[in-house]
Design goal:
This protein has 578 residues and is an alpha+beta fold. Helix content is 31%, strand content 20%. Strands 1, 2, 8, 9, 10, 11, 21 and 22 form an 8-stranded mixed sheet that branches. Strands 12, 14, 15, 16, 17, 18 and 19 form a 7-stranded mixed sheet that branches. Helix 1 runs parallel beside helix 7, helix 3 (72-82) crosses helix 4 (88-108) and helix 4 packs across helix 16. The longest helix is centred in the first third of the chain and has 21 residues, at 88-108.
Length: 578
């Protein structure tokens, strides 16, 4: 392989998701020379496909809205949720420096945030919050990126409307209500018209939302502060001299390069959701490692973890769960391409759908978090059987909310039925036969469900009983926003399989994001953030945004550490660099 002269910088970041870019931007704002090396041709990693939400209790947006709480409540919540996996040092770091991270990025970069002040935590254990602990990137005009827009990973296609991403919250609500509200219809019309113009002129939407907006704003910030952004740059190994990591071997556009980093290296390669061998070792339900369909990019194959381990970094899999479980359905593609995993994050809480096993029985509260639903499915599936379930709904539900990748009215269901993705039948018994579900089991389950659902009740799993359930449901539906009978044929079903949004197991790190060895000693000059670092949540999933919130916060702390700053008052310390 051809070799080129050595590259030099102060900080080398391997990977370009939220954690890596946060570290890069923080270091660059403080005057360091930074190179970001991204394996793919596009920047953004899993973050660019995500909802973009960050769990940051006591954040400045909540404070400005008059939502005040001290750190004791979220700390109490984490302590109860994480149990034996609670790490006091990392919890304190997140709760103290998360708000400072938001303030830093607001003051010194192109980052702007919108609040999640009505988004509750997943559970109702002591210390749980009913809002004010979440932030997301403000929508961004992609034209501000200039030529960099062509190197931004587009949103995950199966979750868009023919390529147009829809923001969670009010934007999504307008799309659901477009046929029921003049105001919503006007909003949707404007959005579609703008998208059509952008598609014709630029080849893609320039109205960026969710995780795409988060990455775009971080890329803009990186470019503004002189970060050297390299794509098609795959990390091969780390360079360690005199006990310190001083760079990495990186293949850039197929050319072997030695990249020297005087201050250190940050691993941010996205974890190992597509490393089949490591999945086999760490995912208990799939000994082969193949019965898993992650919604993360296929190139997230554990590169950062592997090269960190090679120089003595400790891989930590002693967690509640090794991955951020989520139910997915497999969307067939044209031209013989592999099916794409569609993550079921939204429709399960809407009124008029249930999830059943092959026995036709419900097994969980469908409006609970994606992680909780999958945990319940693992627990209820007999050993040796395929882990799967079916989402079942009636015609009214499919036309109102859609089911998986099959969109609601006015979009046709025909293409998805012909591909085999969406099952449809005039009766529940016929639908069960198509899906391989026990017909009598499904019929009796739906009959019992309908009896209670007519009154908005779910005595079996209490769907709609928590703030998180209700915010995910349909507020217009009474008396329970999450519960309605399945009555109007034809009936539809989509098969759910075990998937994930990313991995939780990763390299052990301390509260400054430094990689630890087997004796819990920091490896000098080496940091890990995002999913290359073992989740500070210990493999638990207490709230939405518990991946990106810590990724941004510990990326920020890694950047400060690399800049040689104390953590006493990082925002104040950095003000003179703006």
């Amino acid at each position: 392989m051809k070799r080129e002269p050595m590259l030099e910088c102060d900080v080398l970041v391997l990977g370009s998701g939220a954690g890596g870019l946060a570290a890069a931007v923080t270091a660059a704002v403080h005057g360091l020379r930074v190179i970001v090396a991204e394996k793919e041709a596009v920047f953004g990693g899993t973050t660019a496909w995500s909802g973009g939400w960050m769990w940051i209790p006591c954040n400045p947006l909540a404070v400005r809205a008059g939502i005040t709480e001290d750190a004791d409540a979220p700390r109490t919540y984490l302590r109860h949720e994480l149990g034996a996996h609670f790490d006091a040092g990392k919890a304190d770091a997140l709760l103290e420096y998360g708000p400072r991270m938001v303030e830093f990025f607001e003051q010194h970069t192109a980052m702007r945030f919108v609040d999640g002040n009505r988004i509750p935590d997943f559970h109702t254990t002591p210390g749980a919050g009913t809002g004010g602990r979440s932030v997301c990137a403000m929508p961004f005009d992609g034209r501000e990126l200039g030529p960099l827009i062509d190197r931004l990973r587009p949103p995950l296609g199966v979750t868009t409307l023919n390529g147009m991403a829809i923001a969670s919250g009010a934007d999504l609500g307008h799309f659901f209500n477009a046929t029921r509200s003049v105001r919503s219809a006007l909003h949707v019309t404007r959005r579609l018209a703008t998208y059509a113009v952008h598609k014709l002129r630029y080849g893609r939407s320039m109205h960026l939302v969710n995780g795409n907006a988060l990455v775009a704003r971080l890329l803009k910030s990186a470019a503004d502060h002189g970060v050297d952004l390299r794509s098609n740059a795959r990390a091969v190994g780390l360079i360690r001299e005199a006990g310190r990591v001083v760079g990495a071997h990186v293949e850039i556009d197929g050319v072997a390069r030695e990249v020297r980093a005087t201050h250190g290296v940050v691993l941010a390669c996205g974890g190992y959701p597509h490393d089949v061998a490591r999945r086999a070792r760490t995912f208990a339900y799939t000994p082969s490692g193949r019965e898993h369909w992650s919604a993360a990019p296929s190139t997230n194959t554990g590169d950062g973890i592997r090269i960190g381990e090679a120089i003595g970094g400790r891989f930590d899999a002693a967690l509640e769960a090794p991955a951020a479980w989520a139910p997915v359905s497999l969307v067939p593609q044209r031209k013989g391409e592999p099916a794409v995993a569609f993550p079921h994050l939204i429709e399960r809480a809407k009124p008029g759908v249930i999830a059943v096993t092959r026995a036709g029985k419900r097994f969980a509260n469908e409006a609970s978090s994606y992680y909780d639903l999958m945990t319940a499915l693992f627990d209820t599936t007999p050993q040796g059987e395929e882990v799967c379930a079916w989402l079942v709904c009636d015609h009214r539900f499919q036309r109102r909310y859609g089911l998986g990748v099959s969109k609601p009215f006015p979009f046709p269901t025909g293409p998805w039925r012909r591909s085999g993705y969406l099952k449809r039948a005039s009766s529940l018994v016929e639908l069960a036969v198509q899906c391989g579900i026990d017909p009598q089991g499904l019929a009796s389950t739906v009959a019992a469900w309908n009896t209670d659902a007519k009154d908005g009740a779910d005595p079996q799993f209490h769907r709609g009983s928590t703030p998180y359930n209700r915010v995910q449901g349909d507020a217009r539906h009474k008396p329970n926003p999450c519960v309605a009978p399945l009555e109007e044929g034809p009936f539809y079903a989509v098969k759910l399989l075990p998937g994930s949004l990313g991995t939780f197991a990763g390299l052990a790190t301390d509260a400054a994001a430094r990689v630890l060895d087997n004796e819990n000693r920091p490896l000098a000059g080496l940091y890990a953030v995002g999913n290359d670092s073992a989740s500070m949540m210990g493999g638990c999933y207490p709230a939405g945004g518990i991946t990106l919130g810590p990724a941004m916060t510990f990326g920020y702390l890694a950047g400060l550490s690399l800049a040689g700053l104390t953590q006493a008052d990082p925002v104040a310390d950095s003000s003179h660099h703006a």
